[in-house]
Write a structure and sequence with these properties.
about 45% helix, alpha/beta, D-Maltodextrin-Binding Protein, domain 2, 18 helices, about 425 residues, binds alpha-D-glucopyranose, globular, 2 domains, four-stranded mixed sheet
Length: about 425
């Protein structure tokens, strides 16, 4: 466990890099702190709530695992002042950002607690859409060092903390150890292989053990493609080589014909049903194998990706215009502390509250945390481009990459467009 902790610390350092956005002053005002008796201004229009409970709306992405609903239910059962309602949103990061942004720009109080991707939380803080939480943390005796450091940095703007981790993420290669030879498995787990090696393996093993596809990953036109390309380009150190390797994988008979429409959902559906030998996905897929898979975790191992594993994750913050900031904080604090056990045990997520990393229930339920391939992935994490206007950079990258992968843009034009986006 000590080793895992050490490696998690390494991950947090990389996450910190990811989050190093430029700063401009953000509007701040002292946060309201502790929960006095909540006002009766619960939004009336939705559903019936017991009169004395205040409704807290939690805008969070769709979860393929039972974890988000379980953590909301556990919170609702744990106290009688608030009832949290999960507003189940898209889990396309870019589309969700647009949705929330529209609401925030209109000054809406529709959502009290927001789940935000690490790549756009800083932007929300800079725009003054979310509430600084330093005083609330202090009042409740919480310290920044108790949480995943990279996630905390991603939500720290202008020396103020705006977020707590919902869950940290990193890219992993899942593979079927009942199909892949012991020799290839060892190579994968060590991380000492290339995308060309992986493609050869995917082509070789495809069709074995009841599979129809060799490999699945995220090549749809959305943020997931930027995460995959971060890995193929080894953290943007080789844009041309990465694009060529990714196109080769897309064009290979080992990947599905419609791989250019694959996001995380198509990926896990394929892998957990035993249809593919290899899948690039996030830690939650481990939990999904147990909760919904037709294959069992016994036949699966994980490995680092050849050019490094992209860091991601989601953060919790409070809408500046929330009418129920005390309740919002109370819920957010619960999810980010004791709720992390539920997230990890029921969803396979990586805990963002450090003490949960050595919690016996978490360790027992989430065997992946102790697997050598997972530890190696944690040790080789890489970041998406760091930019003060990340969403434009990301849009330009995904558009050029997707056009090239679809055969609509020349390689040289795609490389140029991406290099321009990276330089901006
Ligand atoms: C995961 C990651 C997030 C990333 C997204 C891309 O949700 O946590 O950081 O942007 O996948 O699809």
């Amino acid at each position: 466990m000590k080793k895992i902790l050490g490696i998690l610390l390494a991950l947090t350092m990389v996450l910190a890099l990811l989050a190093g956005c430029a700063s401009t002053p953000a509007a701040t005002e002292p946060a309201a702190t502790d929960a006095t008796k909540p006002a009766q201004e619960a939004p009336a229009e939705t559903q019936a709530v017991p009169a004395e409970r205040v409704m807290i709306k939690f805008a969070a992405q769709a979860d393929s695992t039972p974890a988000t609903q379980a953590v909301v239910d556990a919170y609702n059962a744990s106290q009688d002042m608030y009832t949290v309602e999960w507003i189940d949103m898209t889990n396309d990061s870019g589309a969700m950002r647009e949705q929330i942004l529209t609401s925030m720009q209109a000054g809406s109080s529709d959502y009290d607690v927001l789940s935000m991707d690490v790549v756009w939380a800083g932007e929300f803080a800079a725009a003054g859409y979310i509430e600084p939480i330093d005083q609330m943390m202090q009042a409740d005796g919480l310290k920044i060092s108790q949480f995943n450091a990279g996630s905390m940095t991603a939500g720290n703007y202008n020396a103020k903390q705006y977020t707590l981790p919902f869950f940290p993420d990193l890219g992993l290669l899942y593979f079927r150890k009942d199909i892949v030879s012991a020799e290839d498995a060892a190579k994968l787990v060590s991380g000492d292989y290339t995308y060309a090696d992986l493609q050869t393996m995917a082509e070789t093993y495809m069709g074995q053990g009841g599979t129809t596809d060799g490999i699945v990953f995220q090549a749809k036109l959305y943020e997931g493609l930027v995460c995959n390309l971060t890995e193929y380009t080894a953290g943007w150190t080789d844009v041309e080589g990465g694009l060529v390797a990714l196109k080769s994988m897309v064009d290979s008979p080992a990947s599905p014909v419609d791989i250019l429409n694959y996001s995380e959902g198509e990926t896990h559906n394929s892998f957990i049903k035993g249809a593919s030998v290899f899948a690039r996905n996030w830690p939650y897929q481990w939990g999904m194998i147990a909760s919904e898979g037709t294959i069992s975790q016994d036949v699966v191992d994980v490995a680092p990706l050849p050019g490094g594993s992209t860091v991601g994750g989601w953060l919790l913050g409070i809408n500046k215009n929330s009418a129920n900031k005390d309740g919002a904080w109370d819920f957010m604090k619960f999810v980010a502390t004791q709720g992390q056990k539920i997230m990890s045990v029921q969803g396979g997520y990586l805990p963002g509250y450090n003490e949960m990393l050595s919690d016996a229930d978490v360790v027992a339920a989430n065997a992946m945390l102790s697997m050598p391939g997972f530890q190696n992935a944690l040790a080789t994490t890489i970041s998406r481009p760091v930019s003060a206007h990340y969403s434009e950079t990301s849009d330009a990258i995904m558009n050029a990459a997707h056009a090239y992968l679809s055969g609509e843009m020349e390689l040289s034009a795609a490389v140029e467009a991406i290099n321009t986006a990276l330089a901006n």
